[in-house]
Amino acid sequence: MSMIEWKDEFSVGIPDVDHEHQQLIGLINELHNAMSGKNAAMTVTDFLGEIHAHVAAHFALEEKIMREKKYDQYEDHKRDHERLLDEISDIMDDYEENAFYSDEVFTSTLEHWFSDHFKTRDARLHKHLGV
User: Fold this and answer.
1) Angle at 42 between CA 99 and CA 106, to 5 degrees
2) How far is CA 78 from CA 18, 57, 70, in A?
3) How high is the pLDDT of residue 80?
4) Which of 3, 46, 47, 91 is surrounded by the most beta carbons within 10 Å?
5) What is the distance between the alpha carbons of residues 64 and 54, in angstroms, rounded to a whole number?
């Protein structure tokens, strides 16, 4: 079962970037499936940690490119990255402190962030860079 389905609203209109974002969503779904069910291969903590690590690595690469290209919206874009990582960390902390985790909350957080960030910040960045 997929946690997040690709939606047209996630598209930035740049095939390579959209493909990379689709791969990230695929990874989230793959890890979610490994965590779900009676023979779960992952715990909630492992799942959230893996997502955090992969998203952070994606952001680090994107931020490196922005710095190299002296992107004029670097600080705002980076702050948005930090906000999502903080939200994932907050969900992880809530689970560790209260043993509470909700697929619905996590999915909602990611879907909102994907639709907002992909359509605005990433679309502008990649159009600016001519990627």
Assistant:
1) 55
2) 19, 13, 13
3) 93
4) 47
5) 15
What are the angstrom distances between the C-alpha of 105 and each of 3, 55, 101, 112? Answer: 11, 18, 8, 11
Q: For the segment 76-87, what is each residue's pLDDT rounded down to a tens digit?
A: 999 999 999 999
| CA 41 to each of CA 36, 77, 93, 100: distance values in angstroms, whole numbers, following the listed order | 8, 34, 21, 19
Could you give the domains of the chain? 12-129 (1.20.120.50)
Asked if residues 126 and 116 have their Cβ atoms less than 8 Å apart, the reply is no
Q: What is the pLDDT of residues 67-106, one digit of tens each?
A: 988 999 999 999 999 999 999 999 889 888 888 888 888 8
Give the Cα separation of 96 and 78 in Å (integer).
27
Cα–Cα distance, 99 to 102 (Å, whole number): 10
How confident is the model at residue 101, as a pLDDT? 82
What is the overall mean pLDDT for the chain? Answer: 86
